[in-house]
Amino acid sequence: MKPIILQGHERSLTQIVFNSEGDLLFSASKDSVVNAWFTSNGERLGTFGGIKGDGGHNGTVWTVAVDSQTRFLITGAADNTMKLWEIATGKCLFTWDFLTAVKRVAWNEEDDTILSITEQRSGQPSIIRIYKINRDEPTMQTTTPITTMTLSGSKATVALWTPLSEYILTGHESGKVAKYDVKSGEEVNYVDDAHKGEITDIQSSPDGTYFITSSKDKTARIFDSETLEEMKVFPTETPLNSACIAPLRPYIILGGGQDAMSVTTTSQRAGKFESRFWHKLFEEEVGRVKGHFGPINTLAVHPQGKAYASGAEDGFVRVHWFDESYFRSRPFGDLEPEVEV
Amino acid sequence: MAAVRSNTNWAEDDIEADELPQTTETTDANGITTIISWKLDEQDRKVKVTRRIRRRVQTQVVSHSVAERKGWAKFGLDSGKPSGPDRKTTIIGENLHFRIAPVSKAEPEVVDPAAAKPTAGKAVVCRLCQGGHFTAKCPYKDQLAVIDNMNTEGMDEEEDAGGVGGLAPKGAGGAGGKYVPPGQRAGGGAGESMFRSRDDLPTLRITSLSVDADEDDVRDLFAKFGRIARVSVVRDRETRESKGLAFVSFEERKNAEEAIKVMNGRGYDSLILNVAWSQPRGDRP
């Protein structure tokens, strides 16, 4: 397996996402530029922002989300704005202004609604807003959200739409996992002690019926999307920053490492800056991929399960296309059914 | 050329150096493309960069939307750049060995001085009864110590008789207790090396092999005689075509002998195999 190393950022990565066909990868970082890459050869298609006067972000880009048709991109940044971009040209189409930074954005399944989470800071509470997106005239967007959820307790750090876009699932700083009704804005279900530390990432399974969360408490957990019942636990030795579920094969990928501030005082070997593969069902570790010089901040898996990418504190994105041996692997032998690929 | 050189003075020569020759691309009959490009190094000297590559077209079936996106013009910081990966932003990393297999929990962990201490404290084992206490405090000290001494003495005798060098300092040294390197001790032989040299393995040379046979075919052909350490098929450096010559290294000499007996003169893919011992480079006529 030869990784493709993408060096288009000057600062650490915050989030990377594949588009629905897996041919493009979008990477957001603390250097205020969002990059688009062809995953097959690592060629950079372009940058969103980066040139003066083109309407780019002016601070850390915390989050990026791509719609299922690869037409529009939503980004949220520390300059208190959220932006809509046209992917084919890299033009900024619309900007929403807020009072605090935008920490997470996500498209719903129908590509017509987005969610945004704003940071809790300087007296402002953490707010989840739901916006309708005008796809026909993308430069004419409304700044009035259809639903506003003001969170009184612990702030939300990550969020995800459920299938059919009826609910959103959130992960909170306290370790709480909650489920909100999009129409009414009511909290319909929650698990207070889902994790013992801040939830750093939330990613859905291919069919959306369950989801994985990673946390600073060194564990990743799989929950049922309907009932929020905990299904699996994956305990590791380092705080986790990201987790994703690989389609096609029964594995999950975890990434983490100790905090950025303590990186320089630990050796690379002890730092565990590796992507770790765990068996989803047996809850056993089955492999590691090394390569980064800093903790992995974000992981994304190809929607068809052919590759995965990791973005780290060192500013690099590494795209790994799986070998044939990965698809044939059955680490627990006869316990596992043979899978035709 | 030399005449032209003598006519220009050094100042003009310097100016000329800035104009680098065009990058040339030539493709030879074997399909190898030679790209000659020029660049200036840090001291402004002309450097000729010759790259020899083989282009292979790989066809991939993709959906229409993916094919359409492949044709998009670059934008942002990359606008106007030619298609293809830019070496400034994209590099191919070195091959990683990645295999899905259960990671054993007993894997020796990182050398961590803080973590090593408590285990060292725990690892008190009695030499006599293997219990969790110091040998001096062993309750069976009187009975077991005698048996233990007898055992070790017996072992020492055996070792001396067998002439195993290197391990036992006793008896291994020369007269007068002077240090003798393990390699020169009586019965020590050449000593054991950490790595087995390539030439140590019994290697066969297979000639008049079909050019269609690759490493796996040769391995299949010889696997029935015993464990094979290495198979290599000699190939053309550029075209990667087999030259009809292969080397097979067995782990056991008797397996290799058996293979010569059976395979030499056998037909394989309409050619008669010629199997013989491979001679080291120096001994060849």
From TrEMBL, chain A:
A GO biological-process term: formation of cytoplasmic translation initiation complex
InterPro entries, A to Z: eIF3i, WD40/YVTN_repeat-like_dom_sf, WD40_repeat_CS, WD40_repeat_dom_sf, WD40_rpt
SMART domains listed in its UniProt record: WD40
Pfam families recorded: EIF3I
Main localization of the protein described in the UniProt heading: cytoplasm
Compartments, record wording: Cytoplasm
Residues in WD repeats: 6-47, 54-95, 192-233, 289-319
PROSITE patterns noted in UniProt: WD_REPEATS_1, WD_REPEATS_2, WD_REPEATS_REGION
Keywords: Cytoplasm, Initiation factor, Protein biosynthesis, Repeat, WD repeat
Gene Ontology terms: cellular component: eukaryotic 43S preinitiation complex; eukaryotic 48S preinitiation complex; eukaryotic translation initiation factor 3 complex, eIF3m
Coiled coil: none
An example molecular function term from Gene Ontology annotations: translation initiation factor activity
Binding partners and assembly: Component of the eukaryotic translation initiation factor 3 (eIF-3) complex.
Physiological role: Component of the eukaryotic translation initiation factor 3 (eIF-3) complex, which is involved in protein synthesis of a specialized repertoire of mRNAs and, together with other initiation factors, stimulates binding of mRNA and methionyl-tRNAi to the 40S ribosome. The eIF-3 complex specifically targets and initiates translation of a subset of mRNAs involved in cell proliferation.
HAMAP family linked: eIF3i (MF_03008)
Family to which the UniProt record says this protein belongs: Belongs to the WD repeat STRAP family. Belongs to the eIF-3 subunit I family.
Protein name stated in the entry: Eukaryotic translation initiation factor 3 subunit I
Gene name per UniProt: TIF34
UniProtKB/TrEMBL annotation, chain B:
Localization, UniProt: Cytoplasm
Keywords, in A-Z order: Cytoplasm, Initiation factor, Protein biosynthesis, RNA-binding
PROSITE patterns from the UniProt entry: RRM
Listed GO MF terms: RNA binding; translation initiation factor activity
Pfam families associated with the record: eIF3g, RRM_1
GO CC, alphabetical: eukaryotic 43S preinitiation complex; eukaryotic 48S preinitiation complex; eukaryotic translation initiation factor 3 complex
InterPro entries in the cross-refs: eIF3_g, eIF3g_N, eIF3G_RRM, Nucleotide-bd_a/b_plait_sf, RBD_domain_sf, RRM_dom
CDD domains attached to this UniProt entry: eIF3G (cd12933), RRM_eIF3G_like (cd12408)
Residue ranges, compositional bias (Polar residues): 1-10
Domain RRM: 202-280
UniProt-listed GO biological process terms: formation of cytoplasmic translation initiation complex
Region (Disordered): 1-28, 155-196
Biased composition (Gly residues): 162-177
Family assignment from sequence similarity: Belongs to the eIF-3 subunit G family.
Subunit note: Component of the eukaryotic translation initiation factor 3 (eIF-3) complex.
Role: RNA-binding component of the eukaryotic translation initiation factor 3 (eIF-3) complex, which is involved in protein synthesis of a specialized repertoire of mRNAs and, together with other initiation factors, stimulates binding of mRNA and methionyl-tRNAi to the 40S ribosome. The eIF-3 complex specifically targets and initiates translation of a subset of mRNAs involved in cell proliferation. This subunit can bind 18S rRNA.
The name this protein goes by in its record: Eukaryotic translation initiation factor 3 subunit G
UniProt gene name: TIF35
